Amino acid sequence: MRGRVTARALVLVIVVALLGGALVGCRQPAPKPQGQAEIKPEDRILRMDEDWPTYIDPAVGNDFSDSIALVNLYDTLVFPNLDGSVRPHLATKWDVSPDGLKYTFYLRQGVKFHNGEELTAEDVEFSMKRLLTIGEGFAYLFKNVASAKAVDRYTVEFTLKEPFGPFVKALVRFYVLNKKEVLSHLKKPGQYGEMGDYGKEWLLTHDAGSGPYKVKEMKMEEYLLAEKFDEWWGGWDKDAPVYFKEIAAPDPVTIRTLMARREHELTDEFQPEENLAALEKIQGVQTAGFFNGNNLNIMLHTKKPPTDDIHFRRALAYCLDYETVVTKIWPSCKQARGPVPHNLPGHNPDVYQFKRDLQKAREELQKSKYYGQLDKYPVTLSWCAEVPLEEKLALLFQANAAELGIKVEVTKKPFGAMIADAQSPETTPNASIVYVAPHYPEAGSILTSRYHSSTCGSWEQCEWLQNKEIDAMIEQALSTVDEQKRFELYYKIQEKIVELCPTIWVLDQFEKRAYQAGYVYWPAGEAGKAGKTILPVMGYGVYAHDFRVYPEKKMELLKTSK
Description:
19% strand; alpha+beta; 32% helix
């Protein structure tokens, strides 16, 4: 018996020794202190919501959510600064001919597309030709381009049909695609001849860009998930988001839940004040805002009874209670003065501003051809379902109009449905509540996208103004190279448009978003909190590359908020 115990003890000693040697040989690291979790790439994510649907094809997308996606997936020749100026980006420099018709851009060398191929002048030439051929999205900004030509591998030349003063500023909306990538995904047959569908179907859910982020997953009805492109030419900060996710805007209650769980970093800019107040009660969540160059409009269909009558339109403009709008519904905003936001270069500060005046409203209504038969001509109005606050404006407008005996029929519609309605005069309602933003940092952008006949049929011009005099005035201003003279012409255009009253200009937007300030750095938001005057062009205020995300701070918030 003693022999067996001794043998067992000996075996046990040998096993322990062997195990000890194995552990020493493996050099196992000491365990992390309890509660200290490992930071994973997926923890460094920036999630936000926006209006939907979202189109990520640079020749198709042009609204708020599209623009946010495009600026993160693609590069442009120039890049907008927060003050409204532009700086070199893909182009390191450029020359302009004395007559203002030829622009030569010299490209940065070594820029890689997401598939690893180098970006060259041939890609720039292809991208402009594709945009103009398809004729959607931001193509209207470049309809004056007569030709795009790759002079050599890193030099591209644009020739204009006539001078276009803000051409360089407009290039913040010209996104460069990989020619080979697009050509390898053509679907034939298609409406573009030998180009088939020009890659439009593939580009619904993929990208062909060189931007800081590349598509990881795109679900058309739900979200865009993009991941950091490690080889982006502009370089990376170690705390920049590894992933960027843009989702279809949920209801305010869902937003609060996601923010409280730290599953959402940045809200859309259309949250009701009461929801922003509730979000600020969550530890680490703050709101930040700034006048962003956008404005909110009630667009009046000038070709459909009864809003086809100028006196009827003026009556509506005089009856709205603007003070309630900017003190109760959107307290941080200010009443708009004409079609161009007050902080956009080229705004006319002296243009006529409508105020609530029921006496003037009644006087105008009596001049209308519909006076005396108002019951036969109700005003149809649509507001955007993704922007809950618009319902309050719609109901206020309905109540104000009722004081004049005008019946307003209010309809809540998803933005996608509003876009579809705007495509023909027959389906466009009498009134549409829509936010608009400049596509480049100058008054000419708003004046063109909102009131030039070439933009009729888009969500940006539900007025169907189709005024040849306004068209000619806009074209003359845009062809003026001298900035001071161009701005003087912008002033006159604004006065003429206000005289026609195709729109009720409600407010200049103070963009307010809630964000996880406890673990996220948002450049535009911080600038706004510091009181700086900034003008981020639509989409660029959410340039994910410049954000910073600190997961370790997020973990601390999760602990303390339990």
